[in-house]
Amino acid sequence: MDTATHQSDEDILIQGLKSGNEADFQTTVRLYTPGMMAVARYYLDNASAEETVQDCWVTVIDAIQTFEGRSGLKTWLHRIVANRAKNHLRKSKREVSADFSESLDPDLTNRFAPNGRWATPPSLKFEEDAESLMENGALSDCLDQHLARLPETQRSALMLYEAHQHKSSEVCNILDVSASNLRVLLHRARQKIFLMVETFQETGEC
Fold first, then answer.
1. Contact 147, 41 (CB under 8 A)
2. What are 78-133's pLDDT values in tens digits?
3. CA-CA distance, 20 to 151, in Å (whole number)?
């Protein structure tokens, strides 16, 4: 499906939601609930995440009339979920230092490009290739463990940006952080994942 078609379909769904079309609402719930659940789980346990997403759909019904299309529908929904989840936890927003000298290991600084992505990505050098390792679960399980150990804000930033392919501006809106804070969060998260992969590459252990 090309971008123009996707945008047209989204516009149709938005119009249907605003007009109270039940079929369009059910389609929207089916399409977007998995991503909303993923966002909620960054902050909450499964039961609380499910409750939060259900509550968010009630909010969406009431708030859709105010939706102006300044962001995509997915971004708008994810922002609602993130805000509701943070309110559920009753946590105040945590700011991070924008001093990159404190957030990165000096030996790893050159591994990252100015945009925050790896300039020199790690590569696996085992008898088994990376695809085989992922299939047998060794690397995948290790990655899951390390992602779970990341601080909440780092994990959220990394998963929204990398896994869900949100633009940096969209992630800033969803998490309510500045662009400089997002860069630091991504750098810190990537550094820890990078070190995990390096260790796995050399020892074969998590």
1. no
2. 989 988 888 877 543 444 443 333 444 444 555 556 555 556 555 544 444 545 54
3. 40
CA distances from 206 to 53, 90, 96, 128, 140 (A): 33, 34, 28, 16, 10
Contact 190, 154 (CB under 8 A): no
Tokens 């990341």 belong to residue: 150
Nearby residues of 43 by Cβ (< 8 Å), 6 or more positions away: 49, 82, 85, 86, 88, 89, 152, 156
Where does residue 201 rank: exposed (0-12), middle (13-18), buried (19+ CB within 10 A)? middle
Query: CA dist 152 to 75, 88, 196, 200, Å?
Result: 19, 14, 18, 23
**Token pair 């820890």 in the structure block, residue:** 192
pLDDT tens digit sequence for 12-56: 889 999 998 889 999 999 999 988 988 888 778 788 888 899 999
Task: Answer for the pair 73, 13: CB distance below 8 angstroms, yes or no.
Answer: yes
Backbone angles phi, psi at 112, to 5 degrees: -110, 140
Residue 199: HSE in the Cβ half-sphere, 13 Å Cα cutoff: 12
Q: What are phi and psi of 93, to 5 degrees?
A: -60, 135
Contact 181, 95 (CB under 8 A): yes
Residue with tokens 């605003």: 18
In the chain, the amino acid numbered 167 is K
Token couple for 131: 């695809």
